Amino acid sequence: MTEPIDLPPFSCEGCGVCCEEQGLPPGYLVPALLLHLPEALREEIAFHQEEERQTGRTRHARELPCIWYDVETKRCRHYEYRPDICREVPIGGSSCLFWRERRAAPQGDG
Ligand code: SF4
Ligand code: SF4
Description:
With 110 residues, the chain is mostly helical. The chain has helices at residues 39-55, 84-88, 94-104, and strands at 69-70, 75-76.
């Protein structure tokens, strides 16, 4: 079980909650948006997209961490290539608070 996160947030340091159930880097579903990525990262995403096709469920639906998320450091492994949506999440904004409050809520409440 992951420890609850104290609110309110002032920094992403030691948080990473909004990456924990993204499954894949959000916003990279359109192939054209992948063109600026190194080939190895494109192949990694393609590998997991194929796995999603084969299982019939997205990693996001399975509430799995983003494939670029490092659970040990709670950081993005490819920060310089993170999608725009990841860059635009304001710390302390509604999306940020949603994820942090979701994590702070008692586990098993649905
Ligand atoms: S944006 Fe918010 S939820 Fe995401 S890592 Fe930063 S503080 Fe945590
Ligand atoms: S791409 Fe990076 S910042 Fe965006 S959800 Fe994945 S790990 Fe988090």
